[in-house]
Amino acid sequence: MDRYYESSPPPKAKKTQAELLLSDLLWLLVKVAFIITAVILLFTFMFGVYRNEDPSMNPAIKDGDLVVYYRLDKKYAASDVLAADYNGKTIALRVIAVAGDEVDIRDGELYINGAMQTESGIYSATDSYEEGVRFPLTVPRGSVFALGDNRYNSVDSRIFGPIPAEETKGKVMSLIRRRGI
Q: Mind listing the pLDDT tens digit for each residue in 2-16?
């Protein structure tokens, strides 16, 4: 009777130092590529960043600040700051009134639902613009009324009216202050 013996596999050759280094470097490049792809996807679909060049929100958001906004949250409440497009530029504005609220501006004062608003951080009168919307105005469903904090020098809902929430870019969540760079 013949016996067949399986031969054991040949011993594996040990990797040289150069092969180990190349393997580690390749694995590192795969990790870096994954992280870069994840960051690009996050800032394409979930978050947005822009450099503020508009004086509408001064002094809260200054010229040169990097503004980070969240694209997926478009349910606004009064005092939220939103990012929106105006004439091809991204601007930040503060939500003053939401759907169903009545906004009135008279004698340099802002009234929401008949109550005069006292706002901290607002250093100038809230006047209406001659070429803008007429007051009193009721904010339509699905829209918000937004003003800049720098009321004297602001392009906001007093000019172009209530903003449909779905047409905004998102809710501002953070800013990176640029100081003399």
A: 566 666 666 676 778
